Amino acid sequence: MSDALKNVIAQSLECPVCLNTFIDPKILSCSHTYCKTCLDSLLEFHGNDQMLLCPVCRAETQVPNQDDKPQAVVYCQDCGKYLCDTCHNTHSQWQDFIGHEVLAMGEIVSGKVSVRRYRKCRKHPKEDEECFCSDCRRFACFRCVVMEHSKEGHGVIDGAVFESNHMKSIEDFKSKASKKRSCFQKYVDFIDEQKERVSNVRKQCTDDINKAYEESIRQLTEKKEILIGEVKGRTEGVEKELEEMKKSAQEHITHLTTIADVVTNMTKIPLDMDALAAHDTLCQDLQEALKQEDPDYRQPIQSSRKGKSVSFQRNVGKDELGLGKIANAVLAKNIALPTKDSMSAMVGTPDGRMAVGCSTGGLEIFSADGQHQQTVFKDVKIHGVGFLSDDRYVILDPSNNITLYTFEYTKLNVMFATLSAGVGGMAKLTVDSDDEIYVSYRKAMKIQVFSPAGGKAIREICDGYTPLQTTGYNDHLIITSWETIRLTDKQGVVKYKLTKPGYRPYAAVSQGNTILIAKVKDRVGLVSIDEYTNELKHIKNLVIDYKPEKPEENWYYIQQYRSGEIAFCTPDRLYIFH
Q: From start to end residue, where is composition biased (Polar residues) (predicted)?
């Protein structure tokens, strides 16, 4: 067999989709034949398992539920179609097809018979369809071209040329498809690499989480023991105090019972002179015992209050691993000031009460239980107030003038050369234990120190920050400046500094000579009060996140009553924490 004949036979047996020799060929309703696997791929590609479009003529073929159509057994040279047994039987019975040349598939594959390159024209059976109309997308014989495809718009070319161009186009598509497959394969490989990286990250994170979990368990266990120990430390002393009170009361009960029993029993027998004298002495002892005051319930109440105020505050929405804190429960009294939004100063009085100064006029005096007891200096506008050791009042007015008054509210003729409000800006005042008067100026960013004798400042403190409030502390000063509190000597040299970002701190000296600092959270207004050492090191929490009214106001004061209550003042309210 010649090579040319072999090529013709091979092309006749090629699937139009894969361009390989048919494997398990299937015939569509339009009589075009394809490999079964190619048809399966087309069905999968189009996502329709019921209807198949022929890649050649676009005719539709209904796909049965099981795609198992009969295989082609013959090839009609004149029709150019592959036929199954059923179609072959029908084809051989049609009068018009009786003369067609039909070749067995086995003979074609074996090469025993040759297949014509072009099929015969149906209209002109003696003519080969050697031409191709690109407009009609079909092969035609020369006579059909002259009769039907010669009009304008019909592009007729030689069938062999079309076939050659079509094969080149197919090869080009195959090449492009190969490149595209390679491109997507690289993409798939890249995805696998990313999956592996993510998997490695997951494994690493899992290992880290397990390690962190074990470490957290250890830390939680330690924290639990610390908190339990702290609770024990805060309550054990109170329990001991109450036990001592109980023991003392029980001893008094025993003493009373013993003496009373002896005195009573001695009356039941005759008494001589010595016995009467002894009885008289016992009666006197009993009278002395009866003179003891009745139990003071305030003492156990005060002691138990310290114990009952201890609470555990769990961290919710914060650092859960920290468990929480042991803090004193807030027992606060909320007292409205007589004048709204005018509080400008607060200081403890020599007799143990609390004085609140108002910029609109007046000094309001409150007891430790929150009772408003009196108003003094009703016509004096107050921006700062303090007391000298001889109980004289030192008052700063809105113009930054200092005036001294006796304890009976008599004005004294003492002048002080302070900076005016225009030069120094808003000012605040404090008096230390040496009777030195400190005036801090916000605008001038300095502190002037005066003697109670008046006159010019005896020295100035200036270190480049804004002194909002100043408090005397032993031989030092506590100076508040926005988010920072500084502990300085009396010359202004900073010894220790504490900064609380996001908070406005306010300081006072406690009755135990420690430092109390109230922290007000910006924009939220929550108040926390803590106790610190003389080196500004934290000791313990006293009040945590208390919500006062009108938290948007940004001027506050903190002081402590001599009896231990903590006073916190906002522009229009006084809060007393027990």
A: 300-312
Task: Please state, in angstroms and rounded to a whole number, the distance separating the CA atoms of residues 434 and 472.
Answer: 9
Question: What is the spatial distance between Cα 418 and Cα 450, in angstroms, rounded to a whole number?
Answer: 9
Sort 455 into a burial class: Cβ within 10 Å, 0-12 / 13-18 / 19+.
exposed
Which H/E stretch holds residue 290?
Answer: helix 273-291
**pLDDT tens profile 347-382:** 999 999 999 999 999 999 999 999 999 999 999 999
The neighbour count for residue 380, using CB atoms within 10 Å, is 19
Tokens of 28: 């569509």
Cα(6)–Cα(104) distance, rounded to whole angstroms? Answer: 16
CATH no. for 330-577 = 2.120.10.30
DSSP code per residue over 63-104: PPSS--PPPP-EEETTTTEEE-HHHHHHHHHSGGGTT--EEE
**255: Cβ contacts below 8 Å, ≥ 6 apart:** 289
| Residue 97: closest CA among 81, 117, 114 | 81
Rank 1-15, 177-191, 235-249 by mean pLDDT and report only the highest: 177-191
* Helix 273-291 and helix 159-266, axial crossing angle in degrees, nearest 10: 150
Cβ neighbors of 344 (< 8 A, separation 6 or more) are 357, 358, 359, 382, 383, 384, 555
* pTM of the predicted protein model: 0.49
Angle at 565 between CA 564 and CA 571, to 5 degrees: 140
Query: What element of type H or E holds 516?
Result: strand 515-521
Range 127-149 burial, b when 16+ CB lie within 10 A, else e: bbbbbbbeeeeebbbeebbeeeb
pLDDT single digits (tens) 390-413: 999 999 999 999 999 999 999 999
Outline where 292-435 has alpha helix (H).
Answer: 298-308, 421-424
Question: What are 468's strand-pairing partners?
Answer: none
Q: What is the pLDDT of residue 320?
A: 56
**What phi and psi, each to the nearest 5 degrees, are found at residue 334?**
-115, 110
Hey, where are the domains in the chain?
3-171, 172-325, 330-577
Which residue in 320, 165, 395, 99 sits closest to 403, CA to CA?
395
Backbone angles phi, psi at 288, to 5 degrees: -65, -40
pLDDT in tens, 305-332: 667 667 776 665 545 566 666 666 566 8
CA distance 343 to 572: 6
pLDDT tens digits, 249-285: 888 888 778 777 776 766 666 655 656 666 667 677 7
- In 3D space, the residue among 368, 396, 392, 372 whose CA is nearest the CA of residue 384 turns out to be 396
The second-level CATH assignment, the architecture, of 3-171 is 2-Layer Sandwich (3.30)
